[in-house]
Amino acid sequence: MTWFEVIPVAMLALLIIFVPGGLIAAAAGARRLLLAIAAPAVTVAVLAVTAIVFGFVGVPWRIPFVASVFIGLALVMWLARRLLTRTWVPRSATRLAGFSPAFVTGFVIAVVIITVQIGFAIGEPGNVSQTYDAPFHLNGVRFIIDTANGSSLNLTGLILPPSRSTFYPAAWHDLVSIVAMAAPWAGLISVANVTNLVIAAVVWPLGALSLVRLLAPTRPSALVIAGVAAAAFPAFPLGMLDYGVLFSYFLSLAFLPAGLALGVSLFRLVDGRRLGPATLQILSLACVVVAMGLSQPSVVFGLGLFGVIALIPLCVRAVRATSRTWIRVSLIVGMVVVGVGFALVWRRIGSFGYTAPWNRYGSVPEVLLDTFALSRGDRPLAVVIAVLILVGIVVAIRTKRWWFVLMWAAAAGLFVLGGALPSGDLRNIALGMFYKDVPRLEAFLVLPAFVLAVWGADAVWRVVARRIKPVSRVAFVAVAASGIVIMIASTQLTAMTYAVAHAANAYRLDDRSRILDDDEYALIERLRDEVGDEAVIVGNPWTGTSWAMALADREVLNPHFNTSHAPAHELVNAELNDAVSDPSVCAAIRKTGARYVLDFGADRFAGSRLDVKTWIGFEGLLDLAESDAVEEVDREGDKVLYRIVACGL
């Protein structure tokens, strides 16, 4: 499919992300800016929770049943509001924040730039992300559709032995599965890529601009600048569609601006009336937290870190407002207790990431520079962004928004520790929440850095505007337009150009592709006509065979690099080529339902952080051309589809 052909899929994804949750939020009384940032969070939260409930009670994960939940909740909210407020239509608040021309302009700029970035990065809508975790995520969506079960308690059944599963946050997979079922004519890969595009180009900038709208309510220019800045950071959103690939973390981070906007509003660090009644804000924040938690829980704790920091100015304000010593001491002690308690929870929950293999990448000075320039390793420095962040820090301190600088410093501190701290207990405790993974920490740093960069750029613009405004309105508009063009060029033609090219390498489909090359892709596309619906295909997942599930809707024995450790699975993988002479292999073949083999060779997975001998554990899939256990069915170049003929099959 071409990008033009997937426009209807993009429209469907947009409607599915915003309309169901928007109906519930609107029925509850949310309007304008609150409705815009709450709608996608409500949609994803309800989808993920509904999937878990459906899994428990045995309701199939199908669009009519899911739609009935949203309609029912919207009706309940509408009636509840009627009973509580005695009105069918909520009374409008005069101070509700809305969508000014500057907001719309900034939003459109962000949508266009991010869409172009991701379009060039992916290449064609059907290209797969040739990264370690992509098969799990994409095959996971197919697994949900095939099993009619989207529960976060069921998803790992994709790779675990039969009847076994553990918790894995499935919100991203649930969302994509609904879009895929709504657009059955489109390939699953195209659906996933288009849904990610909508999240990156619409959900993220909408939340980011909404946060700026609250933090700089009197600065229309800041909103236009924010549109440019939202697309100027290599680490997010583009980086999370390149590295990993971290689709779940990517979705969770896309909700972080909305969560922070609601948090600072409820804490009255901005004018809290701009988003409407506090009750609706609390409900919206709860949905944001659920959506993030059932996408990737570490981002929830990142938001919690910002929340603890936001308590500091409240505590300072309360201490200054009272003259009683015991109240002051109580407030300070309470603040310390909250901080220590959060640290203990951070350590306890973050223990799941202690075994992650990721280590530091540079020296302290190098990582400190990257903290401002949002770079890493040999990537180009985002010099303009670095300068704007420094100016933004000065502006924030001078305007008594030092608490936001503390938020940035906390995220920056995590990044510095990730980049420079050696292996050990301190690294585990501080960074286990993020798997000690520097790219994740860099992406988490983007939001506070984005706000500071916007403040910095707006401060520069104020200096320029004061000098040219008295001249003429035409000159003022011309300089303003030129400034936006210069900012776009200076942020897109350096670090972002490299980031797009780097991501394009991960999605490239040709004979030099990392994992799945064009011959292998072509052979997989023919599987629908050559392999029956009930047959199971064996293949070494490190060579790209696992994508047969997502691309051709055929069950594979090894849907991910982390394969099932069921004895029958391991025996087939290790000894299939000896099936003619070993009865135990035949028993394993029958038990697994294996009937075909995809032989894509024995590539070496030589990543920048992993170097794997991919044939280990899959020795039974080597030298199949010389084995009597199989016969050739189809071939594309040196890539072969075999049928298992041993064991009387």
Briefly characterize the structure.
By secondary structure, the chain is mostly helical. The protein has 2 domains: 7-503, no CATH class; 518-648, Rossmann fold (3-Layer(aba) Sandwich).
Give a structural overview.
This protein has 649 residues and is mostly helical. The protein has two domains: 7-503, no CATH class; 518-648, Rossmann fold, CATH 3.40.50. It is 61% helix and 4% strand. The protein is built from 25 helices and six strands. The protein has helices at 7-28, 32-57, 63-85, 101-122, 134-147, 171-182, 188-215, 220-229, 247-254, 256-266, 278-293, 297-321, 325-349, 364-373, 383-398, 402-420, 425-431, 438-468, 473-492, 495-507, 518-525, 527-530, 548-552, 567-575, 583-592, and strands at 536-539, 594-599, 604-606, 611-613, 630-636, 639-644. Strands 1-2-6-5 form a four-stranded mixed β-sheet. The chain has a two-stranded antiparallel ribbon with strand order 3-4. A hairpin with a 4-residue loop joins β3 (604-606) and β4. α4 (101-122) runs antiparallel to α7 and α15 (383-398) packs antiparallel against α16 (402-420). The radius of gyration is 26 Å and the shape is globular.
